[in-house]
Amino acid sequence: MKRLSDAKTGLDTPRGIAIGIAVLSSLISFWLVWNEMTAPPFCPRLLHVPACVPVFVAYVLVTFAIVFKKLPARRYIYWGGTIIGLAIAIWFSTRQLLGLARCPTLPGIPIPLCFASLLAFTLLMGLRPKQ
What we know:
The protein is mainly alpha-helical. The chain is built from four helices and two strands; from the N terminus they run αββααα. Strands 1-2 form a two-stranded antiparallel ribbon. 28% of the residues are buried.
């Protein structure tokens, strides 16, 4: 009987870890978008658009690029989503540190989610898919 760690596509591989980060981050971003739609303003604004919306789109792009290995433009979708998400995370993390913006937090966890996105997109850059 094979152990999970012996599997080539298990959650202990870089691809599996990237899928876990991307899916969890997508779900949290969806929660933010939902809260923004039901009780605005919840997320800080980026060009009059709630920042959680483009971040959610970026996470979904990254998730699709990781999950669908045979996608023709996989690399471009992955890097496009990662770079856009990372740029937004850097922008709002800096603004949070300077006190110019207020990033939302999860209930009971006092860490601003822009910092969590900065960490997640940085990890996703390191766990990039193979060609």
